[in-house]
Amino acid sequence: MISKENFEKKLIEEHSDACHAAIHSATAAISVVAGGLAQIPLSDAAVITPIQISMITAIGKIFDIRIGEAGAKSIIASFTTAVAGRALSQLLLGWIPGLGNAINIATAVALTETLGWNAVDHFAGIKAEECYKEAKRFEIFTSDFESKIEEIKKLFEVNRDESLELVNSFTKLNNECWNIYDKNLSRYSDGIREKIVILMNSAKEEFLDEVNNKTLSKSSNCFRKLNELKELLSREH
Asked: How many CB atoms lie within 10 A of CB 19?
């Protein structure tokens, strides 16, 4: 299974264009207003900070993560403290009396761009953690299912060859779904992953019921549901 770190890299790569657009939009806006506010003491924070908040909110939406103003401000505060140092963060936000108007355009733009990419890493990390947990959940389901295959096969003593073919077909279809899911995991939304889990568990339950009742056939609900899952996995990302 793909590692959590690779999930994060894959997420950033797939959303790179959208992130670039959100960050560029913010830095372009700041480059316009920063120069115009140079002669108005303490005005920078009132204009620049809301732009940065909007940028962080937009980046969160790209990764399907909702974040409010308080959360965005917390990210800004953490970034400026950790990367720029308290004195520079105060200068950037216009907190030092008499120096708020001294922030130059280049500094504001550069720090905002760095802030933006730090936010990208932050949200990609959160989403990667979610995806990784879902992948582990799917993997556990698959391993549990595979471990029962031999036991299930023994239940079919009549028409053994046909029964084994059905069990093998179901196993193959299950593995095809797993491979598609693993390949495209980072692209699925929260809603799609929820549907996938429901269909996956439902197909497993149907399969076990059909096996126990010795009524398994190619037209069984378990095959229909796995085919629905395969279609959903292939289409919705």
From this structure: 22
